[in-house]
């Protein structure tokens, strides 16, 4: 196996300050597509804020561990070797059961009696920190109740560079501030509930196509390496790692590195990304786990900052591992320094102790991902250990109510010319497959890999089984019957003559449900390899809307989708009296939309992305065909920070509905902006050095001490162990290149254990970067008056123009959601931190507040900026 490590630097070319406006076009591909080496891998800081107690407990625990135990803790036991989607080896001697890493960001994947929550993107549309936190807390509670130790979410990569990208819905928004708040509130919720969160995928994981070589071959492209996301340093800071900084600051216990390459170095062995950005600059104290099969090397990934190999085998079910026995050998033969394996174990245990007091009392893992059967083999791949593997523990509590509330409060009322809210309509006609049930049941397609019936989540590993799914048809019919309305529904998009006959009748209020789906790259739905192949509605949806609205003057359209769809052909038809985006609402879908349509919940969702008129109007797009022969497809993020609304603003394009847009059944007026400057003082770069790398405990170098203990343990087929098969190191490693020394194949400083200088932009003891970046520089207040006749929630948005020629027109920096009674005025209060006002200076390698005049705006969307003031 060829070793792939970070290529040597060319990046200083990017360091030119005061870059010209079109810098990205001037750089040639080489400049953008190499990743500098950053070594050694930072070791934990015992004084890090929020981690001290966890560190002390972890140090005590790790000090008692043997080398085999440390390797066990860092290496997954193999695909389907145990119950969860990933597990590491247990430490029976110290009473720690095997830790369970399990999907997913919207609920527990593949189990039963769990809730199916709204997607990340949907909860982002609430613009409500409290609801994001409560969703995280509920997911964390459910995970804990099933015996899951690390839940594999939330998601900030993809952030949503391209609207067609398959997994955008798992994350929050293409705006880094909204995503950052989504990350931190979710993480706090999950971890307060007693489960470790995992911020993923670090970083630049923006599309499904070509993320894995084998997968790409499956759809006909014979590439030898995965896609490289080529991201310049400024864009990396101002956009892609911004929300990860918030995640680290929120104390996230783990981070998952990504499948694709970053500047032509694999995400899980990219020393610039993991050692440099994540651990050095952001001061991340938890552990980095690989995405499943995203690890491609042993010692090289270890020194580049990977801490846990998932699911542990080189590829699914090879029975071989880059770590396991290889890591044991690599520590014994000095390739991987002892402090590095100690630091891996320390980071894992510190994350553990951050959410648990002790190793005892953990909920046993009481479900199996691989089957819903009560009894079966606990070692699924090996078909070994037949026993009760599913205990069917109901962990849902009252989460259905929260899901209904989020679904309603996330719904974005894009258009309303007066037909909403509904008040006992005489005749309600509900049209479209998306209003009804999947005829084969809501869980009939594996990992939701189909688009049958109403769409309430996308497909892939980011899914959960529905405990039930309330369809719009069921909920609206129940409401209609209660009101004495006449009710009929046609739950197909293709019954054209019957639909015409129905909606052409007198007194009809027609509600048309349409959708667009996407998901993860290992499932192909109707020719969509994860990423959407187009931005239009699925299953004839546009024709359905156009037809119904040509026959019925009161047509209301509800969209369930994974992101924007093109509304261009029909949105301004006057017969279309209302348009709503309901996202992916989860199990209570029908109840949530009924609450909004009937005004039981006054809509307050805001679009977390832009609705462009054409696909091209978004700028960046998915790369669908390899562009580098059989080599790694190259995706240059040449638009820099200009994605979504920043791109539309830069291009002066009109949009159908802008980022942040959403209507209410009441009206609001904005007045009286005030700006108060705080005395934050000048920025002081961090200085000094770390302590030298500590090691904990010692180990024998006699290979006899490491051979598989066959007298104590039964060997399980394909299972990954820390043990050696033989005392012959070369044979035990089964590595044809065995014997190369660290000096021969690892980069300089990879094994250095001496004190290291702290980066000026780093936080010292404060995770998330230099703490002064979070100093409040300005407090902005404004008065918001409810000028309508009913109570409503207004999402007040704070935007800033940083003023430079290369800065976006405006960027979102804060928001607040205010509940205001009719006739009343409430005060919005938002803040601007130093980071909010800074640009990343590539030469200085730090954040700098430029001298350009900065303007703050308080408004109701990215293009309705009611109030403004110059920052002095
Ligand atoms: C490693 O983990 C396996 C599986 O959980 C366990 O059987 C074994 O005892 C562990 N080994 C050590 C040295 O703790
Ligand atoms: C050790 O890693 C190499 C790749 O570096 C792999 O070929 C080999 O099979 C691994 N050995 C074991 C025992 O898993
Ligand atoms: C469900 O979806 C699959 C795949 O998209 C499709 O082939 C099938 O016809 C659908 N089944 C029903 C009952 O709608
Ligand atoms: C129902 O339709 C008829 C015919 O257009 C009209 O006269 C009547 O006012 C309508 N009633 C309601 C409640 O909309
Ligand atoms: C876009 O893709 C969807 C899903 O595959 C498909 O139903 C639809 O027909 C496509 N739209 C166009 C205009 O081809
Ligand atoms: C609106 O609906 C009426 C039927 O009530 C139809 O005659 C008219 O053509 C429709 N208008 C548009 C723009 O589709
Ligand atoms: C956008 O409009 C501004 C102000 O009218 C103008 O200066 C700028 O050149 C325009 N940009 C583009 C890309 O058309
Ligand atoms: C180690 O030994 C087990 C049991 O004999 C065997 O199944 C496995 O393939 C061996 N692994 C390697 C890397 O030789
Ligand atoms: C040390 O072990 C690792 C992992 O098996 C192997 O790749 C490397 O070649 C070995 N180095 C030496 C000097 O034996
Ligand atoms: C802003 O202007 C002052 C005074 O001219 C200068 O010292 C400082 O370096 C400038 N700051 C930046 C970020 O350019």
Automatic annotation (TrEMBL):
- Name the enzyme's class: hydrolase
Q: Which residues form the signal peptide?
A: 1-18
Matching entries from Pfam families are given as: Fn3-like, Glyco_hydro_3, Glyco_hydro_3_C
Q: Give the reaction(s) catalysed.
A: Hydrolysis of terminal, non-reducing beta-D-glucosyl residues with release of beta-D-glucose
**Which GO biological process categories is it annotated with?**
glucan catabolic process
Q: Where is the Fibronectin type III-like domain?
A: 794-862
Known EC number: 3.2.1.21
User: Has keyword Kinase?
Assistant: no
InterPro entries for the chain: Cellulose_deg_GH3, Fn3-like, GH, Glyco_hydro_3_C, Glyco_hydro_3_C_sf, Glyco_hydro_3_N, Glyco_hydro_3_N_sf, Ig-like_fold
Question: Which molecular function terms from Gene Ontology are attached?
Answer: beta-glucosidase activity
Keyword Signal annotated: yes
Keywords, comma-separated and alphabetical: Carbohydrate metabolism, Glycoprotein, Glycosidase, Hydrolase, Polysaccharide degradation, Signal
Recorded coiled-coil stretches: none
Task: State the pathway, as annotated in the record.
Answer: Glycan metabolism; cellulose degradation
The segment annotated Disordered runs over 746-768
The record, for PANTHER family, names: BETA-GLUCOSIDASE, BETA-GLUCOSIDASE A-RELATED
Which family does the entry's similarity section mention? Belongs to the glycosyl hydrolase 3 family.
Query: What is the protein name stated in its UniProt record?
Result: Beta-glucosidase cel3A
């Amino acid at each position: 196996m060829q070793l792939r490590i970070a290529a040597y630097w060319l990046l200083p070319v990017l360091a030119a300050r005061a870059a010209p406006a079109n810098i990205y076009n001037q750089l040639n591909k080489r400049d953008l597509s190499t990743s500098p080496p950053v070594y050694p891998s930072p070791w934990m800081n015992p004084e890090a804020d929020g981690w001290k107690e966890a560190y002390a407990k972890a140090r005590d625990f790790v000090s008692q561990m043997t080398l085999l135990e440390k390797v066990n803790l860092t290496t997954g036991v193999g695909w389907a070797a145990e119950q969860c989607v990933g597990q590491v080896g247990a430490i029976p001697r110290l009473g720690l059961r095997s830790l369970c890493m399990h999907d997913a960001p919207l609920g527990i994947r593949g189990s039963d009696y769990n809730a199916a929550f709204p997607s990340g993107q949907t909860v982002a549309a609430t613009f409500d920190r409290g609801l994001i936190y409560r969703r995280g807390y509920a997911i964390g509670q459910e995970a804990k109740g099933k015996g899951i130790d690390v839940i594999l979410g939330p998601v900030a990569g993809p952030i949503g560079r391209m609207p067609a990208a398959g997994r955008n819905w798992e994350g929050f928004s293409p705006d880094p501030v909204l995503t950052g708040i989504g990350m931190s509130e979710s993480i706090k919720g999950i971890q307060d509930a007693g489960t470790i969160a995992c911020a993923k995928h670090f970083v630049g994981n923006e599309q499904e196509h070509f993320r894995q070589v084998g997968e790409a071959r499956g759809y006909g492209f014979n590439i030898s390496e995965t896609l490289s996301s080529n991201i310049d340093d400024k864009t990396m800071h101002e956009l892609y790692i911004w929300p990860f900084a918030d995640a680290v600051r929120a104390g996230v216990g783990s981070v998952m590195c990504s499948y694709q390459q970053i500047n032509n170095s694999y995400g899980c062995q990219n020393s610039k990304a993991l050692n440099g950005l994540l651990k050095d600059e952001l001061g991340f104290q938890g552990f980095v786990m690989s995405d499943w099969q995203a690890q491609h090397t042993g010692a090289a990934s270890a020194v580049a900052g990977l801490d846990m190999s998932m699911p542990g085998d080189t590829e699914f079910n090879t029975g071989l591992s880059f770590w396991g026995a290889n890591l044991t050998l690599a520590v014994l033969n000095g390739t991987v320094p002892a402090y590095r394996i100690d630091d891996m174990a320390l980071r894992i245990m510190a994350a553990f102790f951050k959410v648990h007091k002790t190793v005892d009392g953990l909920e046993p893992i009481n479900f199996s991902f691989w089957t819903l059967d009560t009894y079966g083999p606990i070692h699924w791949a090996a078909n070994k250990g037949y026993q009760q593997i599913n205990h069917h523990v109901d962990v849902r509590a009252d989460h259905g109510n929260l899901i209904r509330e989020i679904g309603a409060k996330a719904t974005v009322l894009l258009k309303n010319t007066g037909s909403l809210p509904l008040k006992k309509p005489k005749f309600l006609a509900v049209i479209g497959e998306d209003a009804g049930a999947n005829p084969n049941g809501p869980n009939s397609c594996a990992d939701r890999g189909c688009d049958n019936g109403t769409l309430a989540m996308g497909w892939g590993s980011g899914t959960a089984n529905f405990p039930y799914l309330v369809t719009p048809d069921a909920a609206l019919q129940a409401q209609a019957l209660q009101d004495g309305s006449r009710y009929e529904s046609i739950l197909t998009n293709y019954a054209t003559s019957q639909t015409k006959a129905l909606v052409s009748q007198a007194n009809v209020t027609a509600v048309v449900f349409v959708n667009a789906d996407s998901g993860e790259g290992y499932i192909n739905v109707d020719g969509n390899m994860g990423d959407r192949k187009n931005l239009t509605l699925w299953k004839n949806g546009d024709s359905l809307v156009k037809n119904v609205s040509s026959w019925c003057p009161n047509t209301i359209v509800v969209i369930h989708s994974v992101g924007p769809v093109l509304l261009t052909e029909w949105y301004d038809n006057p017969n279309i009296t209302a348009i709503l985006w309901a996202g992916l609402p989860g199990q209570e879908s029908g109840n949530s939309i009924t609450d909004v349509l009937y005004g039981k919940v006054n809509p307050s969702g805001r679009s977390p992305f832009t609705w462009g008129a054409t696909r091209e109007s978004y700028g960046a797009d998915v790369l669908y065909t390899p562009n580098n022969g059989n080599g790694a497809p190259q995706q240059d993020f040449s638009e820099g920070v200009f994605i979504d609304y920043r791109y539309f603003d830069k291009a002066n394009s009109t949009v159908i509905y802008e980022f942040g847009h959403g209507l209410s059944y009441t009206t609001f007026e904005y007045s009286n902006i005030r700006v108060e400057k705080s005395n934050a003082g000048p920025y002081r770069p961090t200085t000094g050095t770390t302590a030298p790398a500590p090691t904990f405990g010692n180990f024998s170098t006699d290979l006899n001490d490491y051979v598989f203990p066959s007298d104590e343990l039964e060997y399980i087929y394909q299972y990954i162990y820390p043990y050696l098969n033989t005392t012959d190191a070369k044979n035990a490693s089964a590595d044809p290149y065995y014997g190369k020394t660290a000096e021969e194949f690892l980069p300089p400083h990879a094994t250095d254990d001496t004190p290291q200088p702290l980066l000026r932009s780093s936080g010292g003891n404060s995770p998330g970067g230099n703490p002064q970046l979070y100093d409040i520089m300005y407090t902005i207040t404004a008065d918001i008056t409810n000028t309508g006749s009913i109570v409503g929630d207004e999402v007040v948005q704070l935007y800033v123009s940083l003023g430079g020629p290369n800065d976006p027109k405006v960027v979102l920096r804060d928001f607040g959601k205010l509940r205001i009674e009719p006739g009343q005025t409430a005060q919005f209060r938002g803040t601007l931190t130093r980071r909010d006002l800074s640009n990343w200076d590539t030469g200085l390698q730090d954040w700098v507040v430029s001298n350009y005049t900065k303007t703050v705006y308080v408004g109701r969307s990215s293009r309705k900026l009611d109030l403004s003031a110059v920052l002095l």
